Amino acid sequence: MPRIPDDIIDNIREASDITEVIGEHVQLRQNGNSMVGLCPFHEEKTPSFTVNPGLQMFKCFGCGEGGSVFKFLQKIDNISFYEAVKRLSDRTSIPLPKSSDHSGKTDPHFTDAIFQANELAQRFYHYVLLNDVKGKQALAYLKSRNVSNDIIQQFGIGYAPGNKNEKWDELIRVAQKKQINFETLARSGLALKTKKGNKIDRFRGRLVFPIRNNSNKTIGFGGRVIEAGQEPKYLNSPETPIYQKSRVVYGLDTAKEAIRHSKSAIVVEGYMDVISLAQAGVQNVVATSGTALTEHQCMAIDRFADRIALLFDGDSAGSNAALRGVEVLLSTGIETRIVSLPDEHDPDTFVQSQGVNALQNLLVEGSPLLKFYMQNLAKKYDLKTNSGKTKALGDLVPLLAKTRNALHRDLMLTEISQRLAVDENILRNEISKNMLRHDSSKRTHIDTQISHKSVTSDIPRREKEFIGFLLKNQKFLLKTVSSLKPEYLESKACQRILQKLFELIDQNSPIDSARLTDQPELSDLAPLVSECVTFGFSEDTLTNYWEESISSFHRRYIEKIITEKRQELTEAQIDGNNLKAKNLSEEINKLNTEKHLAN
Ligand SMILES: [Zn+2]
Fold it and tell me: Residue 130 C-alpha to ligand 1 middle, in angstroms?
């Protein structure tokens, strides 16, 4: 992993507006000098997540997460520090130093190349659709479905040439002119080699819908045929290092503002559904592209929406994929309604024939999630018999056990016991048994949460406070170097921070808290640093505070050594080692004198 020079990281951090970047993921409101919102890293109903624009840091007082803007991106998008810096480098137009190495899977430049290839392909396909004679038929098809130029632009729709009479390597040749070779296209899922060894474009003779991430970058494509009889009807990019099907929500990049505004999201089955509804003026729509909704996708939508409506085609509401999505939503506890369109309708045909108001009415009347799920169970099992109830509970109990929010679980439990006429306590028992069984699989998740918390909660408050004091009152830093040794502190974590601070002073490097959390040696301590700077100090007592802190740390340190020496002394006396005992007694006396001087 190449190390980016600190000054470039500093420039990018300073040029990035942390409230703006975080604001794209979390709804923030002003509260004094900082902004607060609901933490995206743990479930909560009252906001304990704060962003401090002055310090360029965020901090959650619920789960302990915290750090700089890079740390936030790392955590929320599950990317490396390098990738987070790279992303904001693009956004702020502050370039990173070039590296010539373009190979290797973990090399971030490799993902850069894939982003570039996707970007080029998107622009090429879009151009062909709007300006090339080869795109005429595809454009006519879109017009026949009433898709306007505005919507084509908004979603970046394109046409990949390569029908029967056309060449099959147009993208490959265009890319070559731009110094993007076949290998990069192949790794980006945009080209492939036939069995005979011919190099061809993956998408040919298809309408293509760019799939974009939250930063509006194309990471893959969905392709749809326009001529009947061609197979398969839908073709997606394969998974690449930047495109993981289960994590991406199609259309969220364009829909997120509308979702945030209306607080609700409509989830449909395919790209064309999103586009048809957007064309009809319904903008808060996203799609899962044919797969069942995953937990990642739910969380991504949940960041912007309070409510979800799952909109199914007339024929697919009872399908397995639909039910799997419903199960995921049940365990996340997001308020959801299930809406089934009348038979033979999809969102496009429905809106075109019945209008937007009819759709809005359907959305309001949708079935609550649990009710819908229970209705499906009633189709599977005879819920009047005991054996039918037992089977239904076999499906429901693991689902309830997975539900993380206890309140939500309790509400579901009551409803289920009423609907099945089963004693609530028996149900409760079953669930706790099931939770114990699943504990080991859940443990990694819980452990990381707890470990974050314990990073800071086991540390003496006075040490956290003192580190925060130094960061906020840097005129005391220099004299601290000569008065305090890192080992005087009890907490290993605080020792490491102090050590690093001393090093930075030694190198004459600028010091600020956000910068400190971005130091690779301290990357695990970002939550701690972000907590340290939350303590406040009154101006007139600063010098007193510093002096008292230094002597108290010193005294505690000496006391600790004395205790250790006394232990050794006792052991030496038991062993009858008189010489050692005498030396130890002298050392202890000296330490006692030192301790009094430190007062
Ligand atoms: Zn949190």
Answer: 46
